[in-house]
Structures are given as C-alpha cells and as structure tokens.
Design brief:
alpha/beta, Rossmann fold, globular, 4-stranded antiparallel sheet, 6-stranded mixed sheet, 7 helices, 239 residues
Amino acid sequence: MSKFVRTSSDQNSPQDCVLSLEALTKSYHIGLPTETQVLHGIDLSLARHEFVSLTGPSGSGKSTLLNILGLLDQPTGGELYLLGQATRTLSEQARTLLRRHHIGFVFQFHHLIEAFSALENILMPLMIDRGRPDAQTRDWGMQLLASVGLPNMAHKKPSELSGGQQQRVAIARALVTRPALLLADEPTGNLDTQTAAKIFEMLREFNQSFGCAVLIVTHDPKLAQACDRTLNLVDGHLT
C-alpha cells in the first residue's frame, strides 16, 4: 500500500487534538415523563495518529455517541470541539460543512450507490462539494483505488464487487477529503475473518499515512485489543 504525501494541514504534531468532548450529555424526550438521559458527562479527547476502539453492550449509547461525534446529532449539554472549534451552537449549515470537510465515515453496510462506478462512489463527497471532478481529482480517486488494492476496478459497479471489495471502496470514499477524523462503525462486521483482518490493517495504514484520528466501534474483542486504547461505554458512562 502506498504512502501518501501529507498536505500542510496533516503535518502537525501527533499530539495535536482533533476531537475533544467536555462533560457531554444527551437526553431524549426532555421535559416529558419519558425523559431519558443516554449519555452522562462524557469527557474524551482524540489526537492525530490515535487509533482507538469504542466498545460496550447493546443499548449502552454507542450509536448515540457516534452520531454526536460525527456531527449528525447535537448533545443536550457539554461541548464538542473539532479541530479546536466549538460545535454545539453552530448552525446546521456550518456543522454540515465541518462534517463534510473534516470527518470520514465507514459503516458496517458500505452504502455505495449502485448507479455509480467504484471511482464515482469514491469521488462522491468531492462531487457534492465541488461539482464535476477535474483531472486532478480523478487522479486522486485512482490513487486511492490503487491504495486499497483495486487499481483495475474503477469502472465496476458495486454489484460487480465482493463484500470486501465494496468495503475497500467505502474506505477510499471516507478518505477522499483527507479527513482529520475517521469514524468506523463495525467496519468488519459483515466480513470473513481474513478479509476483516485486511480491512483493519488498511485502516491502520491510513491512520499513519494521513495522520487522522480513527475511532472504531466494534464488538470484536480481538480487534479492540489491537487498537492503541479502548474506550468502554456502559449505561452512558465512558470508562
């Protein structure tokens, strides 16, 4: 797998903070008899080059926390800083732009668009932002395809790819904006053991090459133990 030339925004110290949560809480049905607090005063920081797993039983709040980390949902209290910028009171448009430019997502189900080729799926985040891709943008997409081991699959539709190949395309798509933060929700959950190991190794490689912080939600104890550190969420409390 090739190494990438980092842009100036990637050349900070490995200790630079990408994400920081301060006393973050999340409640639903506020003010009603059914009000429920899901997250209780979460404090968390992720630095560049960190590779962290998030574990916890079903119902512990992992999906809620992940949605907040990805700026897809807002906390009830506390604050989330992304690259030093407070986000809780930002407008929806400002949050969308931060998410689009600085956060990459990899899901258990890759959510590729069948009508588009592998290369077009990879370039989709940039096409949404900039319109039709130019030659330089397409070259970047091809570089990513090669780096996930699919240099000859640019024109293949998702239905023509295996599950592992589709997940590789999804990883390339998540990285196309050179995000500071990569969030992966059970990225190997639907893959066989050998393919899952390759996907994990690939995420590790990009973590080092890009300098992005990576947070993986997983139920796999072996995968969690292979990360730099493990966060455990139980009943909305982070340990």
